[in-house]
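Problem: given the chain below (388 residues), write out its structure.
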Amino acid sequence: MYRKEDSVETLLIHAGELEGGVEGALVLPVFQSSTYRYSGEESYEELRYVRLSNTPNHRVLHEKLAALEGGEAALVCSSGMAAISTTLLTLLKPGDHMLIQRTLYGGTDGFVENELAELGIKYDFVDTRKPEEWNSKYREETRLIYVEAISNPLMQVGDLGEVVRFAREKGILSVIDNTFATPINFRPLTIGFDLVLHSVTKYLNGHSDLVAGAVIGSQELITRIRRRSLHLGGSADPHTCFLIQRGLKTLALRVRYQNQSALAIARFLKGHAAIREVHYPGLEDHPDYEIASKLFSSFGGMLSFELKSGYTGARKLIDNLRIPVEAPSLGGPESLITLPVTTSHSSVPVERRNELGITDGLIRLSVGLEGVQDLIDDLSQALESSLI
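Solution.
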């Protein structure tokens, strides 16, 4: 049995697990059944069926995720975008308005600007580091404010405590994507956020072998979102739930190692003659270092940087690396490197990317579990080659 006040490390191992196991097994098996015998359920939502996200694998994972973030309930979805889209489509209707962080994941940006706009849902972008701007964008029909704990790909950290205060003052919901920070470094519900989202594909699973998303919060809000998900169909399958549950058990160990490695790499890059700028909130001269230090226990395994030689140098650097793999996604055991303009933010219009500072030469690095000195040595030789 676990207690809600147990450490994150203990919750990762024991929260949600079936007491006594199944036939004494320490590991919950995969319940690879799409449907279950009717046993007197009085409503459709109570029927046990994979699309209703209520198999034993779902139930155990939901309880573990809720405990991990300090929420009452959770819902796992088929992807991070399924979690984001289902949540926003539940909380917003035509005529409603939302405030949304100006720099964030390109998929979220595209969903808001294209899909929500077509449904008559209005929005305004805001700088989460400038609370004085929010009042001017707030409207009577504003229903929520949406932010990222650490922004993708510029690693900005907003005044998240003020976001919560502002939302409560205005009577609107506060929603945060905590994918980059993870609950090892930051638990948004504990400072007052209403809902936390994750692309579980990334750190929570941590093994680059599945796609999933999750939303965590109060029982009332998660019940509403789950009802919408029944019709949108973005449910995860039991085997995916099993793999996530397995991956979560090593989350604390993985993230803390990645935290240390990313900081060491950021400091190395900061001192290199070929580098124009490093974006990592754990660097003392990062504009958001002070607020990040107050909010987070550490600063995550993601960083981005720009070379003085721009796109040409960035392309040459990536081509000359030995260890990091050029690929989208993040949070796995292998270090992944990419140019956001060709992957996560390729759908964002060029003019807007330039306005945000997402240049053609911006490089994003997801630091994996390799030896940190090996990664630094590899970056060093690739940087030297990019100077030629």
